[in-house]
Design brief:
The structure holds two protein chains of two kinds.
Chain A lengths: L9 H29 L3 H4 L14 H9 L2 H32 L5 H13 L2 H15 L6 H5 L6 H13 L3 H8 L4 H9 L4 H16 L3 H6 L8 H37 L1 H13 L2
Chain B lengths: L1 H14 L5 H26 L2 E2 L8 E2 L3 H8 L1 H34 L4 H13 L2 H11 L6 H8 L11 H28 L4 H9 L4 H28 L4 H6 L11 H10 L4 H26 L6
Antiparallel strand pairs in B: 1-2
Helix pairs in contact in B: 3-13, 4-8, 4-10, 4-12, 5-8, 8-10, 10-13, 12-13
Classes of the chains: A mainly alpha, B mainly alpha.
Chain lengths: ~280, ~300
């Protein structure tokens, strides 16, 4: 295989694996602990036995979870936000990235530089005025639209698409253009269908990012039935003080699942693309 | 008529052959003006005003907000905390993810599985991780203290001791991010052709020299990129201290963003909050530029 440093001794090799396994335990351990603790009886979760496996398995905390917060509604809210963000990015960010990569028009590179500049701009600078704009200007306070609107397009997806499209060959596009296709036509009929791996990658990135949003929804949404999944956890946390830890752990375990499934299923694309984003020169 | 079409031809040439490109980028340009440019301008103006959100009047007070920041003890504390966090968290994750990538690169089997496992914390939300780790760090029944007690050590007040609180959060964030950066490094490592190492070995280079002269220069752009990105993210720390410690104990985990949030949504001092946002932006920009100068210019976009 390419890229390996050769290790002369077998002992060295075993040592490497040991370290890797210890590392894996460190990285996965807390999640495993979260899951099996959520099935423990309440008094076994706290205190000295917190590390041990459950002696009695119980699903009562999951029932408590559904009684404590409107789980389905929260899921739906998160799903709406995520769907909006992902679909908007897949359409508009890809369009923009494509134009920056393949089309030639005055001001193109200037626009690209500006987009890169926004990467350095931390969210906090626009955070407060953005809230004023959404709440006062658009009267979208306490709405899901107010939550997803600022995330509909982003510098990172655009940048990613631009890198992606600079590397695809132009022959196919040229062929369609010669046949009389407009730029839009060739984009939607030829380029997009062939951009599957990029689209999936951005879907995952933007999807997990928006699923995991916290500060912005916290500020925008006030009604608990409009809470997203992450905000619902804060409700559980408040209840945890009064013996509600089981519920909280159950909520954490349950809500970790959707992004996890997404990544497990689309792992291959995801891993490849992270590699690409980091290293394209 | 004829002069007009000549003019159009000239303008048209300047605009470029693919003018439909403007339509392609139009949605984003609108979005950009609406949600980035306008708030940025508004924020700058707000920074110079005093504005209680309940009232409809903004009072222009010039640089007063910024002078107030200069004297604000909470601001100083937040700045210190955030920088402390940055100093632990950024090198920590770079070094560990590099080490993990090098190790994983040496493993032949199970690489895919390890990669996925190490990556898990990255996909989980910060809120969930913060809550799980609140438990892990719990002084009474937490996992870490249970382990320490079993091994014969004393308990540590991970989140209750002002000296440990921020570092504890930093460790947790390093844990969360290592997997992601490790994958980036791993991908570079796997593109280095093996014959390069073999040739160096034949020429008498030992392991350390092989690393320093072949591996490291190729990883350098990635290292710089991760360092700068992590620095920018470090200044945005909010969720974890918010959920885990509420800014305590003794304000030791109060971050700049938390301070901003408090000013805006607890004290409703919008003008002041906006000015903090601007200051934050300036600090982040300054530090990123400094880092870029110090570490080299090999990002090469």
């Amino acid at each position: 295989m390419q890229g390996e440093l050769r290790i002369p001794k077998i002992a060295g090799k075993i040592g490497v694996y040991i370290i890797l396994v210890v590392g894996a335990i460190i990285f996965v351990g807390p999640f495993l602990w979260n899951v099996y603790s959520s099935f423990k009886v309440s008094w076994e979760i706290m205190g000295k036995q917190s590390l041990q496996l459950p002696t009695v398995l119980t699903g009562v905390h999951y029932i408590e979870l559904f009684e404590a917060i409107p789980v389905a509604q929260n899921f739906l809210n998160s799903a709406i936000v995520t769907l909006a963000v992902v679909s908007s990015n897949l359409l508009f960010s890809s369009m923009t990235g494509y134009a920056l990569a393949k089309l030639r028009f005055f001001g193109r590179d200037f626009l690209f530089i500006i987009i890169i500049a926004t990467l350095v701009l931390p969210f906090q600078v626009v955070f407060i005025p953005l809230y004023i704009l959404i709440a006062r200007g658009f009267h979208l306070a306490n709405t899901l639209a107010g939550v997803f609107l600022p995330s509909l397009m982003g510098a990172i997806p655009i940048f990613f698409f631009r890198q992606f499209y600079t590397t695809i060959p132009t022959e196919l596009i040229d062929a369609s253009r010669i046949d009389g296709c407009s730029h839009f036509g060739s984009f939607f009929r030829i380029v997009l269908p062939n951009s599957k791996s990029a689209l999936i990658t951005i879907a995952i990135l933007a999807g997990t990012d928006s699923w995991n949003l916290f500060l912005w929804p916290l500020v925008v949404i006030k009604d608990t039935h409009k809470f997203t999944v992450q905000l619902a956890l804060t409700l559980l946390q408040k209840q945890a003080i009064n013996m509600g830890w089981g519920r909280l752990l159950a909520g954490c375990a349950l809500f970790s699942i959707p992004p996890l499934i997404l990544v497990l299923v689309l792992q291959r694309y995801f891993m490849e693309s992270i590699a690409l984003t980091g290293l394209k020169r | 008529m004829i002069p007009l079409s000549n003019q159009w031809r000239r303008v048209s040439k300047k605009l470029g052959p693919d003018k439909s490109g403007y339509l392609f980028v139009l949605p984003y340009v609108i979005f950009f003006c609406l949600f980035i440019v306008y708030p940025f301008g508004l924020g700058t103006v707000m920074g110079f005003c005093q504005w209680d959100i309940l009232g409809s009047h903004q009072v222009f007070i010039g640089l007063d907000n910024y002078i107030r920041q200069f004297r604000d003890p909470e601001m100083h504390q937040a700045l210190f905390n955030t920088i402390l966090y940055m100093v632990i968290s950024v090198p920590g994750r770079v070094v560990l993810s590099l080490a993990a990538a090098l190790l994983l690169n040496m493993a032949i089997r199970g690489r895919g599985i390890f990669r996925m496992l190490y990556f898990m914390p990255m996909v989980t939300s910060s809120a969930i991780i913060a809550l799980i780790w609140t438990w892990l760090y719990s002084t009474e029944g937490g996992l870490l203290n249970s382990l320490l007690l079993r091994m014969g050590f004393d308990k540590i007040g991970w989140l209750t001791d002002p000296n440990w609180a921020m570092p504890s959060i930093a460790f947790m964030k390093i844990w969360q991010r290592v997997g992601y950066f490790m994958i980036m490094f791993l991908a570079t490592l796997q593109t280095i052709p093996r014959p390069l190492y073999e040739a160096a070995q034949i020429d008498g280079a030992n392991k350390w020299q092989r690393f320093w002269y072949i591996t490291f220069p190729l990883l350098n752009p990635g290292i710089i990129l991760i360092t700068i990105l992590s620095t920018i993210w470090a200044f945005q720390l909010f969720v974890e201290p918010f959920l885990m410690t509420g800014g305590g104990p003794l304000s030791s985990t109060l971050t700049l963003v938390m301070h901003l949030y408090n000013m805006a949504f607890i004290y409703f001092d919008m003008g002041y909050a906006a000015s903090i946002g601007i200051t934050l932006g300036v600090i982040v920009l300054a530090i990123s530029l400094i880092e870029r100068k110090l570490l080299g210019r090999e990002i090469g976009y």
